[in-house]
Design a protein that fits this description.
Layout: E1 2-6, H1 10-20, E2 27-32, H2 36-46, E3 49-51, H3 54-58, E4 65-68, H4 75-84, E5 88-91, H5 99-112, E6 116-118, H6 126-136, E7 143-151, H7 156-160, H8 175-191, E8 194-202, E9 214-221, E10 226-232, E11 242-247, E12 250-255, E13 258-264, H9 279-296, H10 304-323, E14 327-328
Parallel strand pairs: 1-2, 1-4, 2-3, 4-5, 5-6, 7-10
Antiparallel strand pairs: 7-11, 8-9, 8-14, 9-10, 11-12, 12-13
């Protein structure tokens, strides 16, 4: 499959490198950025032609799919341009920063019948897949509670390094939208449909940003289970992502890329650290899933509906923190 990567920032470079690492499955034919010199720097390393116009890249007959690596608030518009041009799409998380934009993208996806995958590579890590399957098999019994924790550190220089970082318009939010959404997606994958959130959020350790750097929330699920979310970029020096899932017959804890704890009433054994999968390798696995989904005319493991659900939770958390009231989640069919 032949790709164009749109956005020559850090994430765009990651995607270009991943595509180049799959020579039997994928080829990078274009890198697009308004600053063509930045696109050229990535193309020189990973291949492809440097370009500065998305529309021209999407018009190329040798482009089958477009990877959107722009600031979050530009995701849906760029993805829609690619879909309208007949290209399949990989979108970096989040799907966009508003549900209206996300829904426009989903509508065009349905109209065109093309494939859209949204990056959430932690689902492909062995520990995450193992726990998800254990839940599906009933090994943990009735799921009662879950905790999703993203305790990161981002310096002031990080936020000052890009004009879009820490802005509500293009970043869409702070610690939860940008960093914590990965583990939010895992929490929802494990625990099912969320129906209500209540939250607190604040900017506690940074300046010159209009989004939160610390947020805590409670999520009620349709099953009756209760989840807790903590996301922060003000926890020096930063800790690994941690997800805990508890049921009435078992418990599991994932820390970073490893299964840190697993115990059930049936005495099921866990697997060792040799079975872990790095975030980079999981990212590569998601690309392979997308490529094979297109070839096999099936849905990718993580599609727009999954990404919309995570986005609705994040936006519900922000609304609850702003108003001080619980927010009902409605979803979309």
């Amino acid at each position: 499959m032949r790709f164009a990567v749109v956005g020559a920032g850090v994430i765009g470079e990651v995607h270009a490198r991943l595509i180049a690492s799959l020579p039997d499955e994928a080829e990078l034919v274009a890198v697009v950025d308004l600053d063509q010199s930045r696109a050229a720097a990535i193309a020189a390393t990973s291949g492809g032609e440097a370009m500065n116009e998305l529309e021209k890249a999407c018009a190329r007959e040798d482009v089958d799919a477009v990877s959107i690596c722009l600031p979050s608030g530009a995701h849906a518009a760029a993805a829609i341009t690619a879909l309208r041009a007949g290209k399949h799409v990989v979108v970096e998380k989040p799907l966009d920063v508003t549900l209206a934009a996300a829904d426009r993208l989903i509508d065009v996806e349905r109209e065109t019948g093309l494939t859209v995958a949204v990056i959430s590579q932690r689902r492909f890590q062995h520990a995450s897949a193992f726990v998800h399957q254990a839940i599906a098999d009933g090994k943990l019994g009735r799921i009662t509670a879950g905790i999703a924790e993203s305790a990161f550190w981002r310096s002031q220089e990080y936020y000052d390094s890009g004009g879009w970082r820490g802005t509500r318009a293009l970043d869409g939010g702070g610690a939860l939208m940008n960093q914590g959404i990965h583990v939010v997606d895992l929490l929802l994958w494990m625990m099912g449909e969320p129906v209500e959130v209540q939250a607190y959020a604040d900017r506690l350790a940074h300046e010159r940003i209009d989004v939160e750097d610390t947020v805590a929330a409670t999520v009620r699920f349709r099953s009756g289970a209760i989840g807790s979310i903590l996301a922060t970029t003000s926890a020096y020096p930063g800790r690994p992502v941690r997800l805990s899932v508890y049921g009435d017959r078992g418990s599991a804890v994932i820390e970073h890329e490893d299964l840190a704890y697993f115990h059930t009433a049936d005495g099921d054994p866990a697997f060792g650290p040799s079975d872990s999968l790095s975030v980079d390798d999981a990212h590569r696995e998601q690309y392979l899933d997308f490529i094979h989904a297109v070839r096999d005319a099936r849905r990718p493991l993580i599609g727009t509906q999954d990404a919309r659900r995570a986005l609705e939770v994040v936006l519900g958390v922000y609304e609850s923190a702003r108003t001080g009231r619980p927010v009902q989640l409605t979803g979309r069919e």
